[in-house]
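Working notes for the structural subgroup meeting. M.R. asked for a predicted model of this chain before we commit to crystallization trials. I am recording the input and output together here so anyone reviewing the notebook later can reproduce the run.

Input as submitted:
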Amino acid sequence: MSAVTLERQFRPIYESLDNGSNKSAILSCNKLLKKYPNNLLAKALKALALVRVQKVEESLALCDEILAAKPLDEPTMSAMMHVLKGLGRNADLVTMCEEAYKVQPQNEEYGAQAFFANIRNGNWKAAQQISSKMHKQFQEDRYLYWSVISAILQANDPSTPGNMRTVLYKLAHRLVISSSTPSYLSADRFHLHMNILKELDLYDEANGLLESEVGKAICSTSLACSQTRRDIWRKRGLYREEGKRARDRISEGDRNWLEFLSVLDAAFAPIASSQGEVSEESKRECRESLVETGEFLADIAQKDGIKNRAAPLALTELKHRAYKHGLYELSVLVESMADYFAQFGDKACCFEDLRAYLDPEIASSEQWEAILANQNLSSASIADLQRIINVRKLQRHGLSDTSMTVEAETARAVNYLSEYMGGLSLGKDLPVTELQPCDDLALLSAHAFVNVWTLNGSEEALYNAVTILEFGLTKSRMSFLMRIMLIRLYRILGAPSLALDHYRAMNIKRVQNDTLSHLVLTRALTFSLAATGDLTYPTECLESSQIYLVNAQETSGFVVRAFTAERYTQIPEFIEFEDRLENSLQRDVVKMEHVRMRLTHEHLHTDIIDMELIELKFIFDRLHHDNRDFVILPNYQPACQPTFNEQTLMLGTSCGQGWLWSFLKIYIRAFQHASDLDETVEAKLLIGDRPKVSPDPETKLPLPERLAIRKSEETAELTPEERQLMEWATALGDWLEPHHNYTRPPPHVVLAEAAKQTELKTGLPLRGVDSKALNGNGNSKKDEEAPPIKLAPELIVKFFEDMYSQFKRLLEGECSPLHLLHIATITQEAYILLAVETLRFKTPSVVKIHKLGNLVCIIKDIRQRANSVVKEMSLELLKLAEAENISDRRSAIAEACTPVTVGQIDNDFILNVVKNVMDSRRKVLEGVAKGMSKLHSTHSQF
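Returned structure, recorded in C-alpha cell form:
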C-alpha cells in the first residue's frame, strides 16, 4: 500500500477521533483491518477509540497484540502513547519507547520519547541513564543537563536513601564540570550549578562563580539565582557582606523585601553569631549597628515617602527584633508602629503589616491603646474610612480575656455595623462589580456575633452574623470573604443548600477545587440526600475531582516543555505541583465522602464493592499532601480567642489525614470481608499500573496489621459519634472475619468466574489468565474445620440503641439540627456497613453448605434492632422538619435579631434570611429522614 493511499484511508479515522466520533472511528478501523488485518496503526487507532467509549477489555487485547509486535513507526507509537495513558499503563509506555530506542539508537526523537516516558513515570534513574547515553551519542549539551537534573530529581525523591543523596549530587556536579560549555551561558543552567554547589557545601567554588562579572550579571536579572546566592552566603555566615550588597541594591532603587531582610540580618549579626550567652561586647556592637541601619532605613523611608512602605516596615521590624533581644524599650517599638500607622493607616494592608508585631504585651500596653484611642476618626473620605477600619481591627486584636463578655461583644458588633452603614454612602456610585470600601466593618461585626455564639451557644447570634453578611452581599456581590464566612455559618446552622449556593457563586475553577472544596465537601454525608435520589453532593464531589484528571493529562506536558526549553528552575516546581495534586489529601477525602454517599444511593453489589476496595487500598498506600487553604478564611477575632476557622469548624474537628485514615480502615476492612478478591486475584484483574507506594515504613507491614493500628492522633480528628462507629465496625469485623475467611471461594475459582464473565461480555479471554487451567466449585467445602459460631459482643448488639439514646437526649435538649443530622447519618452509615459485612451470608447456598444458620439468626436479631432505630430516627427527623415550617418560630427568631436592625437592615430583610435558613433546614431534615426510610425498606430483609 503506497504512502498516499495509506494517508487517504487513515484521514477519516483521524478526523472522527478529533471530532469525538469514536464509534465512527471504530467502524472505519474495522473496514481497514478487513483489508489489512496486520496493520498496527489501524489497531492502535481502534484501541484508542475503544478506550474513549469505555470498552476497556477489547482495547486491552489490541494493546497486547501491538506491544508484542514492538512497533517502530512514529504514527503507531504516537497513537499507542494516548492509548496506554488512557489505560494507566505507564510502565508499558516506558517499555515501548525504550524498546524502540534500543532498536534504532540513532533516532534522536525515539531517545527523547524514552526519556520523557521515564520522566512522566518518575523513573529518574532510567531517565538519567538515557539522557547520558543521548549526550554521548548526539553531543548536545542540553542532554547533559537533562542528565544532571534527573540525578537531582532522584536525589530529592523521598524514596531515595539518605546516603545515596550525596552520591547523586556528586554525580550531578561531575557532569556539570565535564560540560564543554560553562554553565553561565544560561541563567537556568547557572542556577542548577549553584544549587548543586550549595547542597555539597562547595562554597569556595560557588563564590568564584558568583563573584565573576557574568555571575553578578545573572544574579542581578534572575530572582532564582539571586535567592540561591543569598542562601549560599548565609550558609557561609557572610551576613555583613550580604547586608552591604543589599544596601547597595536598595540604594539603587531595588525594593525587594528580601533585600531589606538581608540588611536587618546583617544588623543583628553580632549577636546572632554568638554561641550561648551574648556578651556585652556583642550587644554594644549590635547597638552601634542598629543605629547605623536605622539611619539608613530612615533615609530610604524619607526618600520614598508614601509611595513605598518597605523601608518604614523594615524600621518597625528592626525595632521589634531589637525589643525581643532586650536592646530597645517597648516604648521605642510602639513609637515606630505609631509612625508607620500615621503614614499608612489609610491603606488596607496596614493591619496585616502591624499584626505580626502585636504580641499580647504590646497589643495590651497602655501606650499603644492610647495611640489608637486618640486617633482623629472621620468617614469623610475613603482614606479616612480605611483608617477607621484599621483602628477597629487593631483595637479588636488587642482585646483581653476579661473584656470577652456577651454584652461587650454585642455592643462592639452593633458599633461596627453602625460604622459600616455610615460608610456605605462613599461607595454608592461604584459599579456592581466593585467592593464597598467599608466591607471590612461588616466582617468585623459578623466576627463579633460569631464570638457571642462561641461564648453563649445562642443560635440567634449566628442569625445576626448571617444577616449582616447577606446584607453586605447586596452591596458587594463579588465579596468572596463574605461568601466564605456564610458557607461556614450556614453549615453550622444546618442549612447546607444555602452554603452550596454561595460556594457555587464563587465560581471555583481549576486548582481551587483542590484548595477550597473542603468548605462544602467536608463531612458532606451529613447533608447528603443521595438516598432519596438527590445526587447534588455526589455530583459536586465528581466535579471537584476533575482537576485531578486534568493534572494527570496536562501537567506532564508542561514538564516536557520545560525540559525542551531548558527551564530547569521550573521543572522541580512542575513536578512538585503534579505530585501534590496527584497525592492530594483533599482528593482522597472527597473520594471517601463519595464512597460513603454512593452506598446510600446504589444497591450493594460485588462489582461496586470490588472496585471501591481496590481504589481505597491505593489511597491507603499514598503519601498525602495537604493543599487545603485555611489561610483564606478571614480572621478578625482577638488574639486571646480561637480563630474564626477554629470557631466555625463543623462539629469542632477538621477532617485531615487522621480522619481519612480512620475511615479508610473501616471501609477497606468491610469491603475486604464482602469481596472475594485477594492479592492474587486483584493483581490479575488490575488494568493499569499500581500507584507509587509511600516510603513510610508502615506501608511495608501486611495490610491486616495496618488496618488494626489505632493512633490517638488519628482518632483525635473524629467526633465522639465517629469514634463509636469505628469501635463498632472494628468489633463487627473481628466477630465475622473468621466466617468470611472460611466461606470465601479460593482464588482460582474467582478467576475462573471472572474469565467466564469477561468472555461472555467481550468474546475475548481474560488477559493473562488461562481459562482451561481454572477449575473448581465456588461453594465447595474446605478441608479445614469451620470456625465456631459465637454470640455477638454486646458492643455490636447495643450500638444502635445507644445511638438512638443519644439522639433522643439531644432532641429533648433542643439541640442544633446539625448534631442530630450527624448522629442520624452515622447511624445510617452503620446500618449500611452492617449490610456490607453480612452480604456474603445472604446467599442461601453459602449458609446451607457451611452450616451458618445460627450465625444468620444472630445477624437477623442485630438487623431487627437496627431496623427499629433507623425507622424511629426517620420519624423523629420528619417531625423536626415540620417544626421548621412554623411561622411563629420564624417570627420569634427574627425578633431576637433586633440588634442588627440598623440602617438599611429592616425586620423584613431579617425575616427573609430566617425563612431561607429554616426552609433549607426543613429540606435537609426531611430529605435525610426519607432517605433513612428508603434504606430501611432496601436493607430491612435478610
